[in-house]
Design a protein that fits this description.
With about 400 residues, the chain is α/β, with parallel strands linked by helices. It contains 13 helices and 19 strands. Strands 12-11-8-13-16-17-18-19 form an eight-stranded mixed sheet, sandwiched between helices. A five-stranded parallel sheet has the order 2-1-3-4-5, sandwiched between helices. A two-stranded antiparallel ribbon has the order 6-7. A hairpin with a 5-residue loop joins strand 6 and strand 7. Helix 1 packs parallel to helix 2, helix 3 packs across helix 5 and helix 9 packs across helix 13. The radius of gyration is 25 Å and the shape is elongated. It binds cytidine-5'-monophosphate. The site of cytidine-5'-monophosphate has 13 residues, from helix 11 and strand 16. Cytidine-5'-monophosphate binds next to helix 11 and strand 16.
Length: about 400
Amino acid sequence: MATAELAGKHLVLGMTGGIACYKIAELTRLLTKAGATVQVVMTEAATQFITPVTMQALSGRPVYTSQWDARVPNNMAHIDLSREADAIVIAPASTDFLARLAHGMADDLLSTLCIARDCPLLVVPAMNRQMWQNPATQRNVAQLRADGIEVLGPDSGPQACGEIGDGRMLEAAATYEAIASFFAPKILSGRRLLLTAGPTFEPLDPVRGITNRSSGKMGFALARAAQQAGADVHLVAGPVALETPWGVFREDVQTAQQMHDAVMRTVADADIFIGVAAVADWRVDHVSDRKIKKTAERTLPSFSFVENPDILAAVARLSKPPFVVGFAAESDNLEVHGEEKRARKNVPLLIGNLGPQTFGLDDNEVILFEAGGATRLPRADKQTLARALITEIAKRLPPGISPAG
Ligand code: C5P
């Protein structure tokens, strides 16, 4: 998550009755950590699952539970609360609440607030699989979608009742991601992005290999930012210990050759290609199929290497290439090497890291190299920087490359 990526956003977080109420404690923490202000409103049923005191402590604001709250001077809580909101999020959204919402009922504070709103409404359903599959629920959900209400989830898996199926609420982190994505400007709407991230692993034998210190964080942050910007994202990842960003299609590979093949298989569908991966330049020409053993004579093993394909250059050489963006980590003289590398690889844009020492760190500082000159972006955490880079890339897309939307 980027620092304060929801700064300035004010959310009404409406909770209805369901065991998934426990997830909202964590969701509130994630939203406030991202800079949003959160006004919790609970139905009577929700207070049976988690106390308003807990939600007040986590949101830092008094919680509203009743239409007749004496704290509101004009008795217009439903108007005041919804006017202040940038969005209302109902999580968990029970079967009953979805039904009441679909029929425009307004018989308690939360439902009245929804009908009196002048802002987007997002609902995060949580229920037993049979309740979810019930034709009445499906009808109501279809109606809500038709009314322009965002339905986030539900997830599939084990449920509190012991059954397995569709209906469980998205986890707090996934709900947070969906909300953050909802607020991001859709500057890559309709675009298809293919990108590589992480290191590659070149085996020597079944247990050993050559890799590098790329953490994959920058590539994953870019994948997340592009997804939030509305792109359809295909991420080809080397071996990294990172979670797949929400809504991103991920393909895992090990070697440079596998990464090359995965990219070449799908690049024809891409409008943009970003090569963020730290791809090994060489691999051993013969991988031992058994573990290489120490010998009695202690002879040292020796290896000969062959060159790996240059994925970035291969994409740039295609007869109809997508918009190609390269990355480069240089230990010295980035200003000179960056532009030289961009021209040699024949890509319109190359993003130079100020030093490979940024591998694994959470922040980064980069220079953009292009034919017209170089632009330095301010140091920032990788997620904030990723958003800035996606904005820069979106600005540079040739209009003809693919129709947006
Ligand atoms: O040549 P160098 O590795 O410094 O170039 C870095 C850029 O080239 C990155 O965008 C990286 O993903 C890409 N690259 C590649 N295939 C290689 C080597 C580098 O796509 N074999």
